[in-house]
Specification:
Elements: H1 3-21, H2 26-44, H3 49-58, H4 62-83, H5 88-98, H6 101-108, H7 116-123, H8 128-138, H9 142-163, H10 168-178, H11 181-187
Length: 188
């Protein structure tokens, strides 16, 4: 018997033993996969038809979903690394501001800090709670707000790069699904 044959037989026996020890069988794996599929279907079913259609469309591009998932994970880690040095109350304010990337961009765009009047004008279009957070953070955390904005802009550019080869409707569907983190989690 050749050495490769012995190795193949040993590995086959090892797999059979593992399946037996852990109660894994072809049927068990199929049942597990069916259970996962049922959970996904029941999680998606309550969404409106347009969201379900978008989910169906983007699910045809698993490589793009994986790339976007990685991009989101890197961006999230970058943000966590940025805010971890701060006390919890400042972290919460930075997190609140991160939900308004256009606000952060308006506040940090240009070569210098904005005047109090400029800040007041910008903040007038936003909810009072976020305006308060922005006022509290702006002066002392300007460089971190710039870093947040840079990270967001880079991730948006990378996202556009991932999606650019897709048809317009599929790009719109991806953006719809990306805006729903719970759906993205299901898909990735």
């Amino acid at each position: 018997m050749k050495p490769n044959s012995k190795f193949l037989i040993f590995n086959s026996l090892l797999l059979v033993a593992l399946f037996s020890c852990f109660g894994l069988s072809g049927q068990g794996l199929q049942d597990s996969l069916k259970h996962d599929d049922d959970n996904i279907v029941s999680s998606i079913a309550p969404y409106p038809a347009d969201v379900r259609d978008a989910i169906l469309d983007v699910s045809q591009y698993p490589q793009k979903l994986v790339k976007i998932g990685r991009l989101q994970a890197r961006t999230s880690q970058s943000f966590q690394d940025l805010v971890e040095k701060y006390p919890r109350d400042v972290q919460e304010k930075l997190y609140d501001m991160s939900r308004y990337p256009n606000l952060v961009n308006q506040l940090v765009s240009g070569d210098s800090k904005k005047s109090p009047e400029q800040i007041k004008t910008i903040l007038a279009a936003y909810p009072q709670e976020i305006a308060t957070s922005a006022n509290d953070l702006y002066a002392a955390n300007f460089s971190d707000l710039k870093s947040m904005n840079k990270s967001y802009q880079e991730s948006e550019e990378a996202l556009q790069g991932v999606l650019k080869s897709l048809p317009d409707q599929t790009q719109a569907d991806f953006k719809k699904v990306i805006g729903m983190p719970d759906v993205m989690t299901l898909l990735t």
